[in-house]
Amino acid sequence: MSAYRDKESSNAEGGSDITFDLSSNELVLSPLPTVLAAIEEGLPRLARYPDPTARDLTRAIAGHLCVSADEVAVGPGSAGVLQQILLALCGRGDEVVYAWPGFDAYPLLVAISGATSVHVPLTVSGGHDLDEIRTRVNARTRVVILCSPHNPTGVVIDHGELCGFLRSLPDHVVAVIDEAYVEFHRNSDPAGMPKVLREHSNAVVLRTFSKAHGLAGLRVGYAAGPREVVATVRKTAIPFGVTRFAEQAAMLSLRSEDELRERMAAVTAARDELTADLVDMGLPVLPSRANFVWLPLASAAESFARAAATAGVKVRACPGHGVRISVGDAEAHRTLLAALGQKDRGNRL
């Protein structure tokens, strides 16, 4: 087991300084002014511990999702909550099944729990092969992770296919539906989540404030699921894992749905323009429903990333699979496109 990106430097790739980092799917826009003001106001209270249960945020999330507070667990980012879930449900000899390539923290978090990762290749269209995932489920399987929109491809799982898959799982398996990027697909609307949770007692939905809400530096995320699962997950939480600033900022963000929709519209417009520019260059780009685009470049992925880095733009290469490019600002896109030989066609951000 190795540390998460332990050898990575944001400023030294490809032999040149990195001016634009389009590798981590961070929101290009700043947090809302009300959030920034609340953080500044709270600075004098840094000597105090936060609420260890993040009770106010838990209630706010429950109200947003139309579930009860005892069906919600919060933690330091969705990765932190996923670690809690895996520690609560898995141990040595157990297996966790998920699509690959995927979020590169999954293997680390599974290993920390003592379980074994089972990778299932994506389909040619960049989606989950639910039939193949189901065949990999056995008596040792404890968790199946489904990421929708998927990281790194941006492909969404069809709702009907998802429900059929959940019904097919044996009782001892919990499905974790990682929706870190769902707001870019459905704005701030929780859509079918309450219905999925009501109808499928084996489903846990995972979300974060790091992406659409722009709070990656504060580390706050949450899971919603069955009471008995959530109660166990809470037992593996780090004490005081959600800071006072994170709790306050997340609650303010939940109340700012109109501003969130405006921001999502701007990001998705920029994503679609970037996609069109790359397609015009003859590059393969999958339709994305997240704040990034995926180029299935196979063996050319690393050379593409090196070319971008030489121009000062860092992208995420998955060797042998493809390249993920986060949606950035206008100058970052212009620099990347120029490095790839594309004339500037502008950008809305």
Automatic annotation (TrEMBL):
Keyword Transferase part of the UniProt annotation: yes
CDD domains: AAT_like
Enzyme class at the top of the EC tree: transferase
GO molecular function, one term: histidinol-phosphate transaminase activity
InterPro entries registered for this protein in UniProt: Aminotransferase_I/II_large (IPR004839), ArAT (IPR024892), HistidinolP_aminotransfase (IPR050106), PyrdxlP-dep_Trfase (IPR015424), PyrdxlP-dep_Trfase_major (IPR015421), PyrdxlP-dep_Trfase_small (IPR015422)
Enzyme nomenclature, EC number: 2.6.1.9
Keyword set, alphabetical order: Aminotransferase, Pyridoxal phosphate, Transferase
Domain Aminotransferase class I/classII large, residue spans: 20-340
UniProt key word Transferase: yes
Name the record gives this protein: Histidinol-phosphate aminotransferase
Species annotation: Sphaerisporangium siamense
Lineage: Bacteria, Bacillati, Actinomycetota, Actinomycetes, Streptosporangiales
